[in-house]
C-alpha cells in the first residue's frame, strides 16, 4: 500500500488545495441522511491529512485511519481534537463500531490486489453497527486507467514552491504512479520520488467484495465524482 514520504505529505494540502472536499462531504451527508438519518459516528479510512474529516466533524463524531505516518502527522497537527489510527485498511482492529465508514478520494485503490480489497471490506463490515452505511469512491478499471500518461503541476505559497510531475503505467490489474516532487525553499531544493501501486478493479469485483463481506451494495453513477460511488449497508441485525 502507498505510504507517503513525510516531505511529500508536508506539501500534500498545497497540491490539492483546489480539490472539492466540501462538495464530497455534502454528498456523504446526503447519503447518510437518506440511508441512516440517526447516524452519529463515522470512521474515515485512508483519511490522509484529514481534509474530509475536518468538515465531517461538524456533523458526526469522527475518527480517521491511515497507514502513512507523515499524513497522520499533518492530520493530527490540523485536528488535534480528533482521534486517528495508524493501520492498513486491509488489517485494522479498533475494538469499536461506527454508524458510517467512508473511503474517499479513490483511496480504495491503495489496496493493489483483489485479496486485499476483500480483506478491506471484511474489516469495514466488522466495524459497522447494524444497519451502518459504507461510502466508497472507486478508482479506475483496467480499461479506463490512463496508461503512459505524463502530467505536471506547479503550486507555490509564501517561501515555498512545489513542482509535482508523475508518470503512470499499467501492469496488469495494477496502475503504477511514479511521482516526482521538487520542493523548493530559500534554503534549498529537495527532490522526492515515490512509486505508488494502485489496484484497478472491475465493478463486479468491487460488488463481490462488498457482498462477500455481508454488505448490500449499489453503485450510484451520480456520486461525488465521474466514477460514481458505491454505497453499502450492513445487515440490520448484528452479525
Structural overview:
It contains seven helices and eleven strands. The protein is α/β, with parallel strands linked by helices and 239 residues long. It folds into two domains: 169 residues, 3-Layer(aba) Sandwich (Rossmann fold); 51 residues, CAC2371-like domains (S-adenosyl-L-methionine-dependent methyltransferases).
Strands, helices and their partners?
Blueprint (H helix, E strand, L loop, with lengths): L5 H5 L1 H4 L5 H15 L5 E5 L5 H6 L4 E6 L2 H10 L4 E4 L11 E6 L10 H13 L1 E9 L13 E8 L2 E12 L2 E12 L2 E12 L3 H10 L3 E5 L8 E5 L6
Parallel strand pairs: 1-2, 1-4, 2-3, 4-5
Antiparallel strand pairs: 5-11, 6-7, 7-8, 8-9, 10-11
Helix pairs in contact: 6-7
GO molecular function: methyltransferase activity
Keywords: Methyltransferase, Transferase
Organism: Ideonella dechloratans
